[in-house]
Specification:
- The chain contains 21 helices and no strands.
- Helix 2 runs antiparallel to helix 3 and helix 8 packs across helix 9.
- It starts with a helix and ends with a helix.
- 41% of the residues are buried.
Length: 451
């Protein structure tokens, strides 16, 4: 009885921690780490017998190997070069493997109260969406934080990530409705319509352009694969389009902001292709630490501008992508180790159109930089088998499970959309969300196989 009670306490604690996950993601990295740590600890105690077994499922296997590969690459790039901090981070990154497995076990054992998670997402997303709308219309949000012109970030303040945050969790918020309301179809339709309008408007007025595109694509995919929601989403998207057109035509700042995005995107591809082909063998003798330091301070930038052509600044991504491309060609197969871009970029600062940053601002470029072609392919194979098994088993799901499964897959597609500028794949906020969703997807697939 005691063991049973302890197990129930652990499961209850896990459900509370998962219920708070969207709120933790809102609060910042410190709270996210605490939340992930709690999920890992409670999960280890609740499923310690399952952790002792290794299921030879292809998706599990490749994801496990991906984490192992990160540690090996970081060992050779950091530990052997007496950078123990970099190697330690690769070991600590294993917490996301545990997070992935805990979510998998919870779904397989039917221990996860997914309704609580969906309600949490719906409440938080609705609040932020309404707060951004208020901030846009009145100039201040509920807490008195002022609008930043074309950007409105609600409680995020000067950190311009509100739209990205909403885009990540909005689909979970939308599928809350069928779980909460079993009847009252007319009210469900109205609420579904209102939530889509709030989320779209919130992301639009946040000024985060790629999240708006991804949210719209996600709605179109839901409309395509979920026939029972098709009419509701279609009508909602018509109203969303009208809201965008009205805002675009009546707000010059928003019009300029969203118009520039189109032209910046075209220029980014053109300039990347143009400047990535240029070589500078005459500058190799400048690749010493003194010159790098001086260049980093900006003292030698004008000297380079006098002799070489620089790409237009635009969104600022061109020099970051060019630097990332140079680095990955230096160590194409194995990469430089976890979060190595911020260190290796210094070796490229003597070249025109190169710059240092904390990460390459694109998941695929970062994976290639840090884990090389081998590590990136291992992860993509894991994702491929995970998605393949899920799609293959969709016909066996009931309506609710099918709704959840398709929603998770669309979220995963949006998260790994190759053309988007992103935060760091290995950052706390991104990694926790990615392996949280992957764990849920993996568990539903496992549940289908067992049943």
């Amino acid at each position: 009885m005691k063991l049973l009670d302890i197990s129930r306490v652990n499961i209850a604690a896990l459900n509370v921690s998962i219920f708070l996950f969207p709120l933790a993601a809102l609060a910042g990295n410190f709270i996210i780490n605490i939340n992930v740590l709690l999920i890992c600890l409670f999960g280890i105690f609740a499923y310690k017998k399952k952790f002792l077994k290794f299921y030879l499922i292809k998706s599990n296997f490749f994801i496990f190997v991906f984490f192992l590969f990160i540690i090996i690459v970081s060992f050779f790039n950091y530990f052997l070069n007496v950078n123990y901090d970099g190697f330690l981070k690769s070991l600590l990154y294993l917490r996301y493997l545990i997070l992935f497995l805990v979510l998998t076990f919870m779904i397989e054992n039917k221990d996860l109260n997914i309704k609580l998670l969906l309600i949490s997402c719906a409440l938080i997303m609705s609040f932020i969406g309404v707060d951004i709308i208020i901030q846009t219309l009145s100039g201040k949000n509920i807490f008195g934080l002022e609008s930043l012109g074309r950007h409105n970030s609600s409680i995020f303040g000067e950190e311009l990530i509100a739209g990205g945050y909403m885009q990540k969790f909005s689909l979970l918020a939308l599928i809350c409705i069928p779980f909460v309301f079993n009847k009252l179809d007319s009210k469900k339709n109205i609420l579904f319509f209102i939530l889509i309008i709030i989320f779209f408007s919130g992301i639009l007025f946040s000024g985060n352009r790629m999240p708006l595109i991804l949210f719209t694509i996600s709605m179109i995919l839901m409309m395509t694969f979920l026939d029972k929601l098709r009419v509701k989403i279609f009508i909602s998207l018509i109203f969303c389009t009208l809201i965008f057109i009205f805002t675009f035509n009546n707000n010059l700042e928003f019009k300029k902001h969203y118009s520039n995005y189109y032209y910046h995107s075209l220029n980014l591809f053109e300039n990347f292709l143009k400047y990535s082909k240029e070589k500078y063998p005459e500058l190799e003798n400048k690749k010493d630490q003194y010159f790098v330091k001086e260049y980093a301070k900006g003292k030698d930038r004008e000297k380079l501008r006098e002799k070489y052509t620089f790409a237009p600044i635009g969104s600022g991504h061109i020099p970051i992508y060019l630097t990332s491309y140079d680095i990955l060609t230096d160590n194409l197969f194995f990469g430089g180790g976890l979060k190595s871009f911020r260190l290796n970029c210094k070796s490229k600062l003597h070249l025109p159109n190169r710059v240092c940053s904390s990460h390459p601002h694109n998941y695929y470029l970062e994976l290639l930089n840090d884990t090389g072609l081998i590590g990136t392919m291992i992860l993509l194979l894991g994702l491929f088998f995970l998605v393949k098994n899920k799609l293959y088993n969709l016909k066996n799901f009931n309506e609710r499970d099918k709704l959840v499964a398709i929603c998770f897959l669309i979220i995963l597609f949006a998260e790994f959309f190759p053309l988007k500028s992103s935060g760091s794949f290995f950052s706390t906020s991104s990694a926790s969300f990615i392996f949280f969703i992957l764990g849920l997807i993996n568990g539903i697939r496992g549940k289908t196989k067992r049943n």
